[in-house]
Amino acid sequence: MRFTRLSLLAILVTVAASGMQAPAADLQQLITDINNSDKLIRVQAMDGIAEQGASAADAVPALVAALSDSDEEIVWHAARTLGAVGEGAAAAVPNLIAALDDDRPKVRAYAAYALGRIGKPAMAAADKLIELAFDKETLVRRAVLPALRRIDPPQEKTLPLVMKILEQGDMSVIIPALGSLAEQGKEAVPKLRSALKHEEAQYWACLVLAEIGPDAADAVPEIVEVLDAQKPQVRLEALVALGEIGAAAKSAVPAIAKVAENDEFKDVRYAAIYALGKLDSDGIANKVLQKVMKSDDEFGRTIGAWALARTNPANKELVAEAVNLLVDSFKSEDVHVRQAAARAIVEFDVDREVVAPLLVKALEDKDPAVVANAIAALASLGPKALGHVDDALSNKALRHYAIRLIARLGREADVAVPALVASLGDQTDSPEDLEFVREAHFALSAIGPGAKDAIPVLVKGLASTNEGAAASAAYALGKIGAEARSAVPALQRAEGSESVIVKAASVFALWQIQPGNPARRVKATTLLLKALEDERELVRAGAATMLGELGNTGERATAKLKEVSEHDSAELVRQAAGEALKKITS
After folding, report:
1. Are 186 and 215 within 8 A, CB to CB?
2. What range does the domain containing 11 cover?
């Protein structure tokens, strides 16, 4: 993930959707509202029914009727809601199959989605769905494959489809196909073993087998054969797959060692060293890795040190030698070597007091990629990486990195809440400190409900004369959710702010804390649509993100977000609007 520290944008663009939903409303009233003359009420009624899931089977006849509506948004909402009902919507299968022939891509896509959610009772749709796997529209193709996986037609029907996708499909078909196969886990391995025998499918099959990991052990013999493939990228992915399978691929060590020593491409040799490091200790592997550690290839030595230490954890002398080599790698002039060292060193059973200072030092690196890797490495230590977070937050040279680490850990970082609260009580109105305040609010919002002890300081932040700080405080309170009920009076006062973004963020937070008020959701939508017209790009970006988190609030919001995602003058705003659209339409 790309991290940014740009005022309110850092608070409002990179945080995941809250997932807050309204409580179940009266089902019969919602069914009645499907036929309301107000389109927004119809859409919200279907969303409300969807929230009730399998218990809303009584709504199926009304939803089936809505599939015949002339309004595209109503139709795809009806299909999506039938999918939410699941198997209880089996009576809708014939109508959903008919919708697969609709001229509108979004209708076809959600019809496929619904059929998949209905599952086995939708088996009659399998042939049509297989046909649509190569639909001209990406949205449809991406919906079809997960649907087929859920319906699970006989392998004799799906294997030819998988082969055709891997051999001939474009990326928009291949990527969801890979995801669908990976989700099947061990059940997909026989198909993938067959795919490994076809040259054009080998690369993709290895990608999925690597994702499946140890459960793909049965495919090891076929993967070993791929190590002789003509294309280096295929050999590389085969090595990664063997590494991810792990101990069950130990029989492949001789073949992997041969590649590590003799392949003409460095990247392939590096992948072989990686694979050896992922397997159990082996005499052949040790011999090769020790040779690598004595080579003049700096990057190879770094990976080799990781691999040798990882496969020989009981050899304290060897582990110490590897750690010393990695410490030296932090000083390398080659950015790739420093990146590899940052990622590798946290995998050793080395005391945190040894590892953490090295990674903190890496935070001062001039190369953003090294910094990002150091943060990722620290995050991989989990909450124990926050052992000295209070010291880091009080150090102006490191506090922004500490905030990024806390945000990266998210809910796991609740132990950092006291330190964050303390740091917020000691800031000035300088631009640098205000930026830190907003980032701290962002970190608290990433922690979510676990940040409830920060509610008083966030309520105080609502009164800030800086609209970015006030808006980010409101946003963080909303992310804390129902635990922030005590902040409701302050948020209601903030609703009267003259700042459009503070007003919108406050209404948005109130809806998240007390989500059972449809009028508040409508009000938030109206304010956020207005904020999308603001001259400041950070305000527009924040508004777009919050619209995405509100969920689908009608055609007007969707159309506006689409317009902004395509035509806004600022790339960051276009990106935020695009992400919001994905959330609304997924």
Report:
1. yes
2. 1-23+415-586
Assess whether 10 and 75 both reside in one domain. Answer: no
Residues 2 and 66 reside in one and the same domain: no
Which residue, 473, 384, 383, 381, is CA-closest to 427?
473
116 and 15 in a single domain? The answer is no
* Whether residue 1 is found in the same domain as residue 126: no
Kindly give, in sequence order, each residue whose CB lies less than 8 Å from that of residue 330, ignoring residues fewer than 6 positions away.
Answer: 338, 341, 342, 358, 361, 362
**Local confidence pLDDT in tens for the 586 residues of the chain:** 222 322 322 222 222 223 333 334 488 889 999 999 888 889 888 988 988 888 899 999 999 999 999 999 999 999 999 999 999 999 999 999 999 999 999 999 999 999 999 999 999 998 898 888 778 887 888 788 788 878 888 766 666 666 666 665 555 556 556 666 677 788 888 888 888 888 877 888 888 898 899 999 999 999 999 999 998 989 999 999 999 998 899 999 999 999 999 888 988 999 999 899 888 666 788 888 888 888 888 888 888 888 888 888 778 787 777 777 877 776 777 777 776 776 676 666 555 555 556 666 666 666 776 677 667 666 766 776 676 677 777 777 778 878 888 888 889 889 889 989 998 887 788 888 888 898 899 899 999 999 999 999 999 999 998 888 999 999 999 999 999 999 999 999 998 888 888 988 898 899 889 877 777 788 888 888 888 888 888 788 888 988 888 877 778 888 899 999 988 888 888 999 999 898 887 6
Statement to judge: residues 545 and 499 lie in one domain: yes
Q: How far apart are CA 67 and CA 78, in angstroms?
A: 6
User: DSSP string spanning 15-38?
Assistant: SPP----PPP--HHHHHHHTT-SS
Contacts of 4 (CB under 8 A, 6+ apart): 10, 13, 14, 572
- Kindly state whether residue 175 falls inside one of the protein's structural domains: no
User: In terms of domains, do 18 and 98 share one?
Assistant: no
Total tally of structural domains belonging to the chain = 2
Residue 563: which CATH number?
1.25.10
**Residue 208 CB partners (closer than 8 Å, separation 6+):** 178, 181, 182, 188, 192
Q: Is residue 530 part of a domain?
A: yes
Read off the amino acid at residue 32.
Answer: T
Same domain, yes or no: 99 and 55: yes
Cβ-contact 401, 359 below 8 angstroms? no
Q: 116, 74, 73: which is closest to 96 by C-alpha?
A: 116
One-letter amino acid of 319: V
The answer to the question of residue 19 being in a domain is yes
pTM value is 0.48
Domain boundary residue, one of 133, 153, 173:
153
Are the beta carbons of 496 and 506 closer than 8 angstroms?
Answer: no
Same domain for 503 and 434: yes
